[in-house]
Amino acid sequence: MGVAALGFTRDRALSAALILAGLALAGGPGPQALEPVPTVATPAVPSHDAEVRPTAASDAQAWLESLQAFRRGREESLRSPDGWMALVGLHWLEPGEHSLGSDEANAVRLAVGPARLGRIELLPEAMSVRLVLAEGARVLRDGAEVASRELLILADKTETPTRVDFEGGSLGLIERGGRYALRVRSPEAPTLRAFKGLNWFPPAPRFVTEARFEAHPPGQTIPIVNVLGQIEPTPNPGRLVFELEGATHTLEALGDPGDSLFLIFADRSNRRESYGAGRFLYTDKVVDGRVLLDFNRAINPPCAYTEYSTCPLPPPENRLRALVSAGEARYGHSADVPAS
Known about the structure:
Elements: H1 10-21, E1 32-33, H2 47-52, H3 56-79, E2 87-92, E3 97-101, E4 108-109, E5 118-123, E6 128-133, E7 140-141, E8 144-145, E9 150-154, E10 164-166, E11 169-176, E12 179-185, H4 190-193, E13 199-200, E14 208-215, E15 221-225, E16 231-235, E17 238-244, E18 247-256, E19 260-265, E20 279-282, E21 290-294
Parallel strand pairs: 3-4
Antiparallel strand pairs: 1-13, 2-12, 3-5, 5-6, 6-9, 7-8, 7-10, 10-11, 11-12, 14-17, 14-21, 15-16, 17-18, 18-19, 19-20
Helix pairs in contact: 1-3
């Protein structure tokens, strides 16, 4: 949830940041686990002034409470059986028909589920696979019972991607760079069961800044490389120009400026303090050519927690010279992926 969604204007959000800059917030300069929201004292003001507008301190408290709610929501989403922590497999498919199930005799062996789930055939022209269920296998397709033994599973880049649930887990189809893979989840995934929470830097108001949006020509794309080395031309509507830590920086933006921008960035905290391959940041929509950047809401990509994801890496243009010690810190239970 962004600042605008909480009823903030850009000026109020920045006012909150300035107020908080003088407060002693929990922890030191390094990462910390999620902490309770500290109490911020509200200075006395004339009663008529309090009726007209909130105090700066109440704005500061609202900013802090919103940030803590965001962090709690982030952890809850990762604890979900549908979240990134629940992944147990990523199976790249070759042309032809293949047996599918948890038995080792299958061409595509699942970590969970029935010994024989069925047979699958890749249909790349339809961005799908055909699954013919084995005798006795029972599944749900998008939450509904399947009457036929044959069903079509649509990829994640179609308008209606398919989810198939079976005993012990679920699967879906992803497409990356013209290749297709089955992505499998389980509520008993080792990564999910071992999850003990995230590490966060202390709230840092100096990492809240307003950016100017400079639009690119319509239809412009930027090559985004993922951890598999695949290159995806991605819509690049513009770049953001902003001040941070006493210097001017730019970030190339993905997404829709009329809805939300998506930023993939690297900074000097990577590897030692934050995830080595960079982090993500989502914004609210651009208004009058401006948008608020709150790096306290920067998050790790899925690759920080699981080997079964296909994370995009920051483009060269998005490697900040600043040390952004804000937002989500390095996850303590995973191997790091070097930036490239």
